[in-house]
Amino acid sequence: MSLAGQYLINGVRTAGGRIDIARLPKVSLHDHLDGGLRPQTILELADEIGFELPADDADSLGRWFSESAASGSLVEYLKTFDVTLGVMQTREGLIRVAREFALDLADDGVVYGEIRWAPEQHLQRGLSLDEAVEAVQEGLELGIEDARRDSGHVLRVGQLVSAMRQADRSLEIAQLAVRHRGNGVVGFDIAGPEKGFPPSLHLDAFDFLAESWFPVTVHAGEADSLDSIRSAIIDGRALRLGHGVSVAEDIEIENEDDETTFVSLGDLAQWVKDREIALELAPSSNLQTEAIAAWGTELSDHPFDLLYQLGFRVTVNTDNRLMSGTSITRELSLLSDAFGYDLSDFEVFQLNAAAATFLSVEDREDLAESISAGFDELSA
């Protein structure tokens, strides 16, 4: 599209006037609860329970998370969660973290979010699985009410209950998710180290979920090959792919000359595109964990734009707000800098995400309408 006569404001091109990206209505599909704590909250919760931290002030602690997460290894990246999980082992801690998480979503302009977390990692101080889910739901509802009361922001949030793929509790966690489907839980996920722990190891859980008509997203194609994505779709019946970056490995590009380029999709990539299986891409995180190493070392090397131009259902996510020091607002701005996206592109990304939520079809349609109305209002 032509950008003539437009202005670059805070990373977004507008047809005139100043538009703050944070005010745009957004949908968050891939946002980890234990990856989105405020550094000051970590300090205060750690002090309450006597948990030792790698830094003793909020600024230093925030830098420690950013530097540790930028190691270039998913395994090392995941080690930072030892700290956040350490202060999320009590009912009070979970309520506070979830409440603040909802408020941070609202500040980011999110109108609908699905936050994921693994209850099995929060039982060290006596909580049961059900008590943990209930505490998080209570915190989310408090945060939603705070945002409505304090700023008039209308936010909806659903829980995605994750099972750790390296453990053997996936069926139990799937049953937990279904048990709480009327109490805020909207979907299931498997998380943790991807390589060596394919979705096929959890067939009993995925069979149960399918029989229960319960939606699934699966971390796949972030730190492993196309086989991981294949297993997520076939064994996990995944409706979305957590990251899914490596699907681009199934795309062949041939440049015949300076003006002619041929693109061909393998069977797997074609299936993901044709079935509109959403890709929960998180640009900054993908760069940190070297999920895009096959394509380069800069954000502009990310296959995001290739997938977008080819018609895949790409969505923009944070993955872990604390570790990547980011927000959806920031991710959109970075993508605009890297690929020249403007307001209309941002709207497509949000509509893609709205269509991929685990809401009912009627609610998805209402969400899409509200997003488009919000974009129209801000761009008028």
From TrEMBL:
Keyword Zinc annotated: yes
Listed Pfam families: A_deaminase
E.C. numbers: 3.5.4.4
Start and end residues of each Adenosine deaminase domain: 25-372
Cofactor: Zn(2+)
Domain of life: Bacteria
Keywords: Hydrolase, Metal-binding, Zinc
Any one GO BP annotation for this protein: hypoxanthine salvage
Entry's Gene Ontology cellular component terms: cytosol
One GO molecular-function entry: adenosine deaminase activity
InterPro entries recorded: A_deaminase_dom, Ado/ade_deaminase, Metal_Hydrolase
PANTHER family: ADENOSINE DEAMINASE (PTHR11409:SF43)
Recorded family membership: Belongs to the metallo-dependent hydrolases superfamily. Adenosine and AMP deaminases family.
Database matches in NCBIfam families: PRK09358.1-2
Protein's name according to its UniProt entry: adenosine deaminase
Species for this entry: Naasia lichenicola
